[in-house]
Specification:
Length: 68
């Protein structure tokens, strides 16, 4: 490791490569995990009839503004 101006340290290519591989491994693990049922229930609730009504109301409001 080399000390650089400002008190920081510059990692060699091996350290940088190791960190990159570890981060990629962690991110890949997270992406491959199943979505918890609780989150799926929340998403379904948001996509339910009430969400559809809110979307329709917003669309109607946008059309009203266009005509005015």
């Amino acid at each position: 490791m080399q000390v650089i101006e400002g008190g920081g340290a510059q990692q060699g290519p091996n350290v940088k490569s190791y960190i990159e591989r570890q981060l990629k491994s962690v991110y890949d693990d997270v992406l491959n995990q199943a979505i918890p049922d609780r989150f799926l229930d929340l998403l379904n609730a948001l996509d339910g009839p009430a969400a559809g009504s809110a979307k329709n109301a917003a669309a109607a409001g946008a059309k009203k503004e266009e005509t005015e």
